[in-house]
Task: inverse folding
């Protein structure tokens, strides 16, 4: 079932009860998913205006320009919204590692069932 | 700040208060983000076991094998979890269009500020 929000051309983000929408960023060159975070309307507006990714930090309870401390900004090349307008996709050029652990991507661990259920760190060999 | 969950090699998903974790799927060949949905522990286990994406349908309140009606399954090539283990990334080979609108990706609309804030449908020219 589809409605106007699903296929129409009016931007109408469906914020959750906390006023947030999920946003994921991937590297526009490689397709690698870098991080998942949340935006409120203010963060979305700032992202659109500056073309630098802004999020709402739930832990700090404030607007957060990604890289404001680390310098590792995400420069937004393309911004997309999904069918029911409750998720955003940012295609970005990262200035540096996206993850707070120093990894290139937050998704640096692969789930494997080779030895029960464990994780494999694909970036560890590259150092951090 | 990091802890064992952030960098350790034990799978320890951080489910929200509803028992769900956000999961995004992208095309392993092209890097295109296809969809964002949610999994509970049962959906994650089924995905790992069958290598076909399963989610928890919040609207229907039940386990949902993506493609169970449409046939448009997502075959999971790689499964990753992020630093704080509250998001999953599935790298998939899609059998058909991932979106319920018939589009290849749910993220078929680009946000543009060229004429105020509107959306551009990048897949419409290709038909649906």
Result:
């Amino acid at each position: 079932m589809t409605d106007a929000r699903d296929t129409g051309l009016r931007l109408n983000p469906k914020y959750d009860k906390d006023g947030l929408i999920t946003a994921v960023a991937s590297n526009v060159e490689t397709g690698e998913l870098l991080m998942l975070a949340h935006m409120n309307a203010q963060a979305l507006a700032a992202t659109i205006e500056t073309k630098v990714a802004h999020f709402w930090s739930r832990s700090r309870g404030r607007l957060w320009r990604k890289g404001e401390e680390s310098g590792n900004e995400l420069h937004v090349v393309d911004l997309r919204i999904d069918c029911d307008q409750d998720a955003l996709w940012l295609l970005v050029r990262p200035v540096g590692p996206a993850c707070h652990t120093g990894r290139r991507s937050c998704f640096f661990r692969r789930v494997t069932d080779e030895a029960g259920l464990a994780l494999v760190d694909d970036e560890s060999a590259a150092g951090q």
Q: What stands out?
A: The radius of gyration of chain B is 16 Å. Chain B has a mean pLDDT of 92. Chain B is about 10% helix and 35% strand. The first strand of chain B starts at residue 21 and ends at 27.
